[in-house]
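[step 3/7] inverse_fold.run input=structure_tokens len=96
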């Protein structure tokens, strides 16, 4: 996969994951597909990045993708933390 195709695929996967943040089962599927894309294609992308001088548009795209991944990670951590808090509360209520 060429670098541009890889970056476009990352953006598409991120867009899909961001679109289902409120639907945990769909989000899990989208995150798994993003993870698979990154695991399969990132090594080749790194080689291509090292072999060529990146055009500014690609540098910007890569930075934006990393920022979106970080934001998605923060959003999902916050949601998991919230759910864990509710579960803890429910467990304490049952134990009383």
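[step 3/7] decode complete -> sequence:
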């Amino acid at each position: 996969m060429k670098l541009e195709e890889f970056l476009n695929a990352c953006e598409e996967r991120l867009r899909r994951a961001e679109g289902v943040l409120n639907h945990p089962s769909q989000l899990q599927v989208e995150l798994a597909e993003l993870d698979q894309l990154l695991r399969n294609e990132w090594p080749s992308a790194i080689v291509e990045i090292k072999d060529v001088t990146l055009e500014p548009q690609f540098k910007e795209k890569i930075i934006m993708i990393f920022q979106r991944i970080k934001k998605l990670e923060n959003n999902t951590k916050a949601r998991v933390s919230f759910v864990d808090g509710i579960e803890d509360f429910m467990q304490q209520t049952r134990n009383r």
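[step 4/7] annotate
The two ends are 57 Å apart (CA to CA).
The mean pLDDT is 83.
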